[in-house]
Structure formats: structure tokens, C-alpha cells
Design a protein that fits this description.
With 176 residues, the protein is mostly helical. 60% of the residues lie in helices and 0% in strands. Among the domains are: 45 residues; 45 residues. It is a multi-pass membrane protein.
């Protein structure tokens, strides 16, 4: 690698100035809350050797700039691997290309997001009411128990439920 030149910044500090303000009286300057920073070394003196390092740095930077321009124009290095898009992205792109009224679909999607956002606000408002969350939780547990008793415990009821789910799936998807 080529050596790089760096410039140093010299700051001086004083125990009489804290936070950019001078102390109000001499006792403040000697208090244990005051902090003084050591001074930094002075900047290096320019020499003939420094100009040679500067020239090397400039050449190295120009070489890097050439590589960046080459990559921007499309001359990709050999180690860059091209990755394929996942299949789900391809499926979504194909479905979007088949949509005739993109404006209506986009409007429905935005309306769905707004409705979802509004419903979360409504649910959080209901959740803050006293007793209502507890009552709704008991109703949910009761309905889940009733559904399990009615549809899942006995085999004929279970088969009827699975048949109804498969029919609904076929109606929604349109395939067998």
C-alpha cells in the first residue's frame, strides 16, 4: 500500500477557560471540577520528503479514481458475483405486470394500509378502557373452547371441517 500523508491539527488548552467561558473568580479555576487538557504537539514542518509523499498519495488517489470510473462504466471485476432474484420476487413482478388497472390496485393497497393503521388505533383505544379487555379475552377463550368442542373433538365433525376448508381454498385459489 502507498503511504498516506495526514495533516495534524494543533489545539491549545488552558486551565483558565472551561467550556469556552472564563471562570468567574480565581477559586473556580482551582476547583476539582475544572479539567485541563494537555497541549498537542506542533504541526510537522514541511520538508522535501513530505512533497515526495504527497506526490505518491496523489498518484495513488488518481489510480483509485480510475478504478471507480472503470467500475461505473460497467467493467466489473471478475470477483463480483451476479445474484439472481428470489422466485417470490419474480412471481410478484409477473403478477404486477398482468394487472390492467394499476391505479385501482395501488389505491386499494393504500386504503388497506390506512384501514390497518386505523384499526390498530381503535384496538389500542379499546384496550385502555377499564374491564373491556378482560371481557373480550373471556369471550375469545369461550368461543375457542366452543369451536374446538363443536368441530375438532369428534372425527365426523373434524372431517366436515377439513372438507369445508378445502372447498373454500379451491374457491379462493381457483385451482385443485
Amino acid at each position: 500500500m502507498a503511504s498516506t500523508a495526514s495533516s495534524t491539527l494543533s489545539l491549545s488548552s488552558s486551565s483558565t477557560i472551561i467550556d469556552g467561558k472564563p471562570p468567574r473568580h480565581p477559586a473556580t479555576a482551582a476547583s476539582p471540577q475544572c479539567v485541563s487538557l494537555p497541549t498537542l504537539p506542533p504541526p510537522p514542518v514541511p520538508s522535501q520528503n513530505r512533497s515526495q509523499n504527497s506526490w505518491k498519495t496523489t498518484t495513488y488517489c488518481r489510480k483509485l479514481a480510475r478504478n471507480v470510473v472503470a467500475m461505473a462504466t460497467g467493467d466489473a471485476p471478475a470477483e463480483v458475483a451476479v445474484t439472481e432474484m428470489p422466485e417470490i420476487v419474480k412471481t410478484i413482478q409477473a403478477a404486477w405486470d398482468n394487472v390492467e388497472d394499476k391505479y385501482a390496485v395501488t389505491t386499494l393497497a393504500v386504503a388497506g394500509v390506512v384501514a390497518l393503521w386505523g384499526s390498530t388505533g381503535l384496538i389500542s383505544a379499546i384496550d385502555r378502557l377499564p374491564l373491556v379487555p378482560g371481557v373480550l379475552e373471556i369471550v375469545g377463550i369461550g368461543y375457542s373452547g366452543w369451536f374446538a368442542y363443536k368441530n375438532l373433538i369428534f372425527e365426523p365433525d373434524r372431517e366436515a371441517l377439513f372438507k369445508k376448508i378445502k372447498e373454500t381454498y379451491k374457491d379462493v385459489i381457483g385451482k385443485s
